[in-house]
Specification:
21% strand, alpha/beta, 8 helices
């Protein structure tokens, strides 16, 4: 049973930097559902797109796999096709719990506990980065996207979901307020919203959609589209 997220429900004298540790793992499914607008849709459609674009004899990667939601969505939609599914996460706590979640997966899944920047990516037809790139240092993002692009088969896809910022300050303020209202509607208090925001400062560093799209173009992706957006969360698909 999913535990209720109450990590930031009590006043904390000092806010530690957010980390995907054992405390977060315990409540992660509840935390992300209540924090990310459209999360369930993004996960489900990640599977659908993987089912469309996964090529027999190729690898399908979930980079920043956490508890394996996107990994399992891919596995369900790819079915018995001859594909190797690989989940990569640098949190040992996430990987250990993920093993339980994927135990009954319809096909074998390889889990790697390592940095996605250091993970070997090759022969890929589907690569998923769902709310992962935003935690990678900004100076390392272009190299990672280039590495992914070079490892992809022609016709393969990258699914990239991120929290975004807006160049227009009025839109930035509006979408931040709407996101906070979304969290309050899902039961988070003002204290929880404020304390988690402090914990994520300088840990989760979002970018504009234009920055993401330009980086994808520079890396050699030919067709790029925002297929989903709700407030300051968006998902892009890029075809090689």
């Amino acid at each position: 049973m999913t535990k209720h997220d109450a990590i930031y429900s009590q006043p904390q004298p000092s806010i530690a930097r957010f980390a995907f540790d054992e405390h977060v793992v315990e409540v992660f499914p509840d935390m992300i559902q209540r924090s990310v607008p459209g999360y369930a849709t993004i996960i489900a459609m990640t599977g659908v797109m993987a089912g469309r674009y996964a090529q027999s004899g190729s690898n399908c990667y979930d980079l920043g796999s956490s508890l394996g939601a996107s990994t399992l969505a891919m596995a369900r939609e790819i079915g018995d096709r001859d594909c190797h599914i690989i989940g990569v996460d640098n949190s040992p706590a996430m990987i250990e719990r993920c093993k339980q979640y994927i135990a009954d997966a319809p096909q074998s899944i390889e889990l790697r506990c390592e940095s996605i920047q250091d993970s070997h990516i090759a022969n890929a037809s589907v690569v998923v980065l769902n709310f992962t790139l935003q935690f990678v240092p900004a100076s390392e993002r272009a190299k990672l996207i280039q590495t992914i692009s070079e490892a992809m088969r022609p016709g393969g896809i990258l699914i990239l979901s991120e929290k975004i910022v807006f160049a227009d300050p009025h839109l930035q303020e509006l979408n931040t307020d709407l996101h906070h209202a979304f969290k309050r509607a899902n039961g988070y208090s003002e204290l929880e919203v404020a304390q988690k925001r402090s914990a994520l400062e300088d840990v989760l560093v979002p970018e504009t959609l234009n920055q993401h799209q330009q980086r994808l173009r520079d890396a050699g992706f030919s067709s790029i589209d925002v297929w989903f957006q709700c407030f300051n969360f968006a998902s892009l698909v890029a075809i090689k």
